[in-house]
Amino acid sequence: MTGTSRSGTGAHWAPGEQILWRYRDHAPGPGGRVHIARPVTVVQDTDELLAVWMAPGTECVKPVLADGTPVHEEPLATRYTAPRTTERARWFGAGVLKLARPADPWSVWLFWDHGWLFKNWYVNLEAPRTRWSGGVDSVDHFLDISVYPDRSWKWRDEDEFAQARRIGLIDAEQARRVEEAGRSALEVVKAWGPPFRDGWEDWRPDPAWEVPVLPEEWDRTPAHMTS
Predict the structure, then answer these.
(1) Which of 7, 87, 102, 134 is buried most deeply by CB count within 10 Å?
(2) For residues 16 and 40, what is the distance between their CA atoms, to the nearest angstrom?
(3) Cα separation of 133 and 224, whole Å?
(4) Which residues, in sequence order, are CB contacts of 168 under 8 Å at separation 6+?
(5) pTM of the complete model
(6) How do strand 84-90 and strand 96-100 relate by DSSP bridges?
(7) Which of UniProt's keywords are assigned here (predicted)?
């Protein structure tokens, strides 16, 4: 991956640089374990916004059950308690554009069908990203919101959010903060604020960009991280 000399400098990545967008799990202990790692190409990186592109066919790391079963196929009652591991897999379907403002406890993803037919925005509720030399890390908060071109919206994964609360992956106070973050995100949606009004659905990647390669040390813990 490129951009590996920027840890702790406050510098921004340049368009076309390749970084990792990662998520840590909810296991006890500082930081948790990286269980999702996605190589992406930087579209824009400023004090106000980080925008990255995950190309079709990108090799990523994702969690699976210990026997290889996809997580979403496990019954909800045991989905977060069954033993897990990780595996490498290619991102299927069209690519994804991810947008995140530094302090927001969510990121906004744009999805297209093949042929660049825009489908929807997806508000992924998560911890504000921490930056390190090779990318950004976050923790997913289960609850999400789909937003459609007609400005309608729909909550997603409410059952998973409730189950995470039941088994103690998130406590009552954190759940309150996540719900508050969701309401704040919806205020932006209802006002049709950025990034929904900014025309990102018409954006296209540079055809010269190569699909990033997943590094061998995709799960390394950086010596320095910053918000």
Answers:
(1) 134
(2) 9
(3) 8
(4) none
(5) 0.92
(6) unpaired
(7) Hydrolase
